[in-house]
Design brief:
The complex is a heterodimer of chains A (458) and B (251).
Chain A (H helix, E strand, L loop, with lengths): L20 E2 L2 E2 L5 H8 L8 H17 L15 H4 L25 E5 L2 E2 L13 E5 H6 L17 H9 L4 E5 L8 E9 L6 E3 L2 E6 L4 E11 L2 E11 L4 E9 L5 E10 L4 E8 L4 E10 L5 E10 L4 E10 L5 E10 L4 E10 L6 E11 L5 E10 L4 E10 L3 H9 L4 H17 L5 H22 L2
Parallel strand pairs in A: 3-7, 6-9, 7-10, 8-11, 9-11, 10-12, 11-13, 12-14, 13-15, 14-16, 15-17, 16-18, 17-19, 18-20, 19-21, 20-22
Antiparallel strand pairs in A: 1-2, 3-4, 5-6
Chain B lengths: L2 E12 L2 E12 L3 E5 L6 H9 L4 E10 L2 E2 L5 H7 L1 E4 L6 E5 H15 L7 H14 L5 H4 L1 E2 L5 H15 L3 E5 L7 H13 L6 E6 L3 H5 L4 E6 L2 E6 L2 H9 L2 H6 L1
Parallel strand pairs in B: 3-10, 3-11, 6-9, 9-10
Antiparallel strand pairs in B: 1-2, 1-4, 4-5, 7-8, 11-12
Classes of the chains: A alpha/beta (458), B alpha/beta (251).
């Protein structure tokens, strides 16, 4: 850390071979993969506000570097496997097709390939009234986006947000004014394509606004093949009494990385209802920051993470109660086989003003093998005195008596285990009220089990 | 008549403690045999060993079931071969719907036997008839398996599974425990309806009471891990009168 004493604000994780000196003047020590990312930044042709935003993000990214386990927020997720790669920018355009296995959500579909909007693969013909959709690239090309891009996601908040802010060139920009009766639904599909000489990294930035009293159901599914990093940031604002059901399926390639950071700002009487099912990726981090900003706002952050092989899957939530009479519910379930690892970090932060807060958090894990592992860290930070906040965590394995009972009725071991896993996940999945989407998640769960079971060779 | 179930010199241990000390028993097809004995005599252990529960270590002897080595089979293969154990304490399965459980079990067995699976409609038609006979409401199909069921409902649910899965051989482990007299009659009727020339049964019970309703062809007394006496149905009445004390002294 030779130079860090001079420029402490530029101190970044140091790796061998990262020291570069030019003409004797100390350069900031930059991790080679951080340097590689910085090199991917193209000259900004856009307006000045955007150039400033990108500059500040680049500066933050260089300074923060890839977090190590010494960073408390990343203590349980080791990023070395990601940080040692030299990512390239994806090639834009070219032929692409929608892969098999994209669930039919029965909704207009926006497709992104390596983070770039693909009108040729999308299907927006039946876009409901009151739902406006455009791509971030076209919004920026038209000179728009000021005050919206980065409104919630501050580059200073972390490495991946900084990286995304520096490089994001596309994403979905959705504005919904549709009344609840319209039952507006949308399907966002991300397809990652690795397979080139170097793994590619893409940084979609979604900007979603649900206007006062409006309602939207968004199904967000991510899949792919080969080696890539999908570093998505979503900024979601809900106006007064707005409602959003956000169902996500993370089924990235087994050689892919996904880091997803969602910021949801929930106004008075509005409700953000999210469910995330994670079945893929070599390493995945799902980070959700939800802020209940007005009285009687509600947030549901539910989900399930399914691990197999040597995969690592991390769910980190930060729920901020910043207004009185708000309610939050979090139920996360992990099912882990092989040598997979899961992390659940859930923080509930109750501001002093947030009296009558009703917060609930439950984290349950089912370990299917002795080498699977879960790290759980619930955190309550409460500054109001009249609140109801509870959290709990359980870790267990499949019940031997239940397995025997099922097998004694003729169910083969694998089927008996699948049935008990499904039962374990049932009350979490019930939170998804949209039947089409719940069926899509159930199918993804079954596909995961078929794979995990085959890998285990049991 | 050739034995459907043939147990020879069976010894078994739990946690290295020998519980079955040499059981010899033959049950031919078409017959109902009762195993009676006081607590701790090894009755339930015998049931679990036959069904293949983990933790019950067979240390000697053999069990032939329809000419096959039963002890070499996994629990699900024993079920496919036609063996069914009605549990003394049916296991609760939160999150698993009763109808779904029963249909998957039935279809797993049908697959193994090379028979066509039943779809939801065919299954419901079959199961409704069986439920009615057992005095069960259809609402019980929608509930999670045995969750929140009363003792009597759990036992009926066991008999329902038996009636739907139609096993060749039934082992009933203390099916009478926890039942009032009305429930006992219903359960016994359900069991009797399954009696037939092709089916064998082993009824394990502490009390004679059940055997008033399910009249056995043979009664065996299990004491200290051994069958110490065998006889006709009158043996059950004798035990009811005299208790196990005399036999225990003799053993």
């Amino acid at each position: 850390m030779a130079s860090s004493s001079r420029q402490p604000e530029m101190a970044v994780p140091v790796m061998d071979g990262a020291v570069r000196e030019m003409g004797g003047a100390p350069m900031p020590l930059v991790h080679p993969s951080v340097a590689a990312m910085l090199e991917l930044r193209r000259a900004e042709e856009g307006p000045e506000w955007l150039a400033t935003l990108r500059d500040r993000a680049a500066e933050a990214f260089a300074r923060l570097g890839f977090p190590t386990r010494r960073n408390e927020a990343w203590h349980y997720t080791d990023l070395r496997s990601l940080a040692e790669l030299r990512f390239a920018a994806p090639e834009r355009g070219g032929a692409a097709r929608l892969p098999d296995g994209v669930a039919d959500a029965g909704a207009p579909r926006l497709v992104f390939v390596d983070g770039a909007f693909r009108p040729d693969l999308s299907d927006l013909d039946s876009l409901p009234d009151g739902v406006r959709v455009e791509s971030l690239s076209s919004l920026l090309a038209m000179g728009g986006g000021e005050g919206r891009l980065g409104a919630l996601a501050d580059a200073e908040s972390g490495t991946f947000v900084a990286l995304n802010t520096m490089l994001a060139d596309d994403g979905a920009v959705i504005t919904c004014t549709a009344a609840p009766e319209a039952a507006a639904r949308l399907h966002l599909v991300s397809v990652g394509r690795g397979g080139g000489e170097r793994p590619v990294a893409f940084h979609p930035r979604h900007l979603i606004h649900i206007a006062e009293g409006a309602e939207l159901t968004l199904f967000d599914s991510a899949l792919g093949e080969g080696a890539y990093l999908n570093n998505t940031v979503a900024e979601i604002t809900l106006g007064k009494a707005a409602r959003m059901t956000h169902v996500r399926l993370q089924a990235e390639a087994a050689t892919g990385f996904q880091v997803s950071t969602v910021f949801a700002h929930v106004a008075e009487e509005a409700e953000y209802d999210s469910f995330v099912l994670a079945t893929g990726a070599r390493l995945a981090r799902n980070e959700v920051h939800a802020t209940l900003a007005g009285p009687k706002a509600v947030a549901h952050l539910n989900g399930a993470q399914l691990g197999d092989g040597a995969r690592h899957v991390d769910t980190t939530t930060v729920l901020t109660h910043a207004a009185p009479n708000c309610a939050s519910r979090q139920t996360f379930k992990s099912v882990l086989s092989g040598a997979s690892r899961a992390v659940f970090q859930g923080k509930i932060h109750v501001h002093q003003v947030a009296q009558k807060t009703d917060g609930y958090q439950m984290n349950q894990a089912l370990l299917l093998s002795p080498t699977a592992e879960i790290d759980a860290k619930p955190q309550l930070e409460i500054y109001a005195d009249d609140v109801k906040c509870s959290h709990g965590a359980t870790v267990g394995e499949l019940d031997a008596d239940q397995l025997f009972y099922l097998r004694s009725r003729g169910l083969p071991l694998a089927e008996a285990r699948a049935m008990l896993i499904e039962a374990f996940l049932a009350d979490a999945l019930e939170a998804v009220r949209d039947e089409t989407l719940r069926a899509a998640l159930a199918a993804a769960t079954a596909a995961w089990w078929a794979r995990a079971h085959a890998e285990a060779g049991a | 008549m050739k034995a459907m179930l043939k147990i020879e010199g069976l010894t078994a241990a739990i946690d290295e403690k020998t519980v079955l000390k040499g059981i010899d028993l033959e049950v031919p097809a078409g017959e109902v045999h009762a195993i009676m004995g006081p607590n701790g005599s090894g009755k339930s252990t015998l049931g679990y060993v036959l069904a293949g529960r983990e933790g019950y270590e067979v240390t000697g002897g053999s069990v032939q079931f329809r000419g096959e080595d039963l002890l070499a089979m996994e629990p699900e293969d024993r079920a496919a071969a036609g063996l069914f154990l009605a549990f003394q304490y049916p296991v609760e399965l939160p999150g698993v719907g009763n109808a779904n459980f029963l249909r998957q079990a039935m279809n797993a067995l049908r697959r193994k036997r090379g028979e066509a699976e039943l779809d939801a409609m065919q299954f419901l038609k079959l199961v409704r008839g069986r439920m009615k006979a057992l005095g069960m409401t259809e609402e019980m199909l929608k509930r999670f398996v045995n969750v929140g069921f009363s003792g009597g409902e759990k036992k009926r649910n066991e008999i329902l599974q038996m009636a739907v899965l139609e096993p060749a051989f039934c082992v009933l482990d203390e099916t009478d425990s926890g039942l009032d007299i009305d429930a006992l009659k219903i359960v016994a009727d359900g069991v009797n309806a399954l009696r037939g020339p092709e089916r064998g049964m082993l009824v394990i019970t502490h009390y004679q009471r059940l055997l008033t309703y399910i009249v056995p062809d043979r009664v065996h007394v299990l004491l200290g891990g051994r069958i110490v006496r065998s006889g006709g149905p009158e043996l059950a009445l004798e035990l009811e009168e005299k208790g196990y004390g005399e036999l225990q002294q003799a053993a």
